[in-house]
Amino acid sequence: MKKAKVFLIIFASLFLMVSLFLYINRDKFAYVGSVDYVEVDCNMKSEILNEVYLSDQKIRRENNLIKYAIEDHRNQELIISIIEKCGMPTLNEINQQQMNAIWLGLQHTENKYRVKYFPLIEKAVKNGDLSKEQYALMKDRILMDAGKPQIYGSQLKNGKLYKLDAPETVNERRKEIGLEPLEDYLKRFDISFDAN
């Protein structure tokens, strides 16, 4: 009985200390949770998308995703909320940078949202609102996240080219959508590739 009481006191003390530590340092942790819809004004979507684009590029340039996890998450919520409330914009409504912000927000979110909104990306590419390269990057990322081979060779994992479907014809597929040969693309990452 005495041992049980001592154990409970020690356990409760440890629990309180950890809880206190987490509470005091709560601003240093970046739990972002699920993507929720947030209130957006459809009349302000251009301004919102400008801010999202600039924020996304700052986060990627500084390469400190932990520091900016909350901001990155907020960008994703804004993009998804705009699409849900206002519909998928086109270049008739917004400019190219703002369209790119939509693509970036979806490319940098969870795979389930990429999959959900990918048909809108496909339609935007067909309409000329987004590039075929953006299509290829998102398509390959969706395939990689599903554990399937990629089509265009745009995705790397652990410093290597992620598995590729039919490597012998990848450059034909890349050429069809206006991408450089895979060998040239991979040189930027000091990765060699031989399709044969």
From TrEMBL:
Q: Which InterPro entries match?
A: DUF6624 (IPR046732)
Query: Where do transmembrane segments lie in this chain?
Result: 6-24
What does the UniProt keyword field contain?
Answer: Membrane, Transmembrane, Transmembrane helix
* Protein name (database record): Uncharacterized protein
Q: From what organism does this protein derive? A: Belliella alkalica
